[in-house]
Design brief:
90 residues, mainly alpha, 2 domains
Length: 90
């Protein structure tokens, strides 16, 4: 299985390049060096649409509400799922 280890190491090195590139651009380059274009296609980055921003806001609000009021959700749904919903809760 040595060949599998070699492939795993190569894929890890490839993924490290992509992940560490983001860290390098974020921390090591000044704002003057970074342009608002994609270096591969030399095209401007697209702006976020209203639908995308709205979707992100709805998901963020749902995440906060369900995170804070999770007990109320379990009480509401206990009639539908019975004891299995309470058994799955941490």
């Amino acid at each position: 299985m040595t060949w599998l280890v070699v492939i795993a190491v190569l894929m890890s090195a490839l993924s490290a390049y992509y992940y560490l590139r983001v860290v390098y651009v974020f921390w090591m380059q000044s704002a003057d060096e970074v342009e608002a274009t994609d270096p591969v296609t030399n095209a401007a980055f697209p702006q976020a649409t209203t639908a995308a921003v709205g979707t992100l806001v709805v998901c963020a609000v749902a995440l906060v509400v369900l995170g804070v009021f999770f007990g109320g959700v379990l009480e509401t749904t206990s009639g539908f799922f019975g004891a299995s919903a309470m058994a799955a809760a941490p």
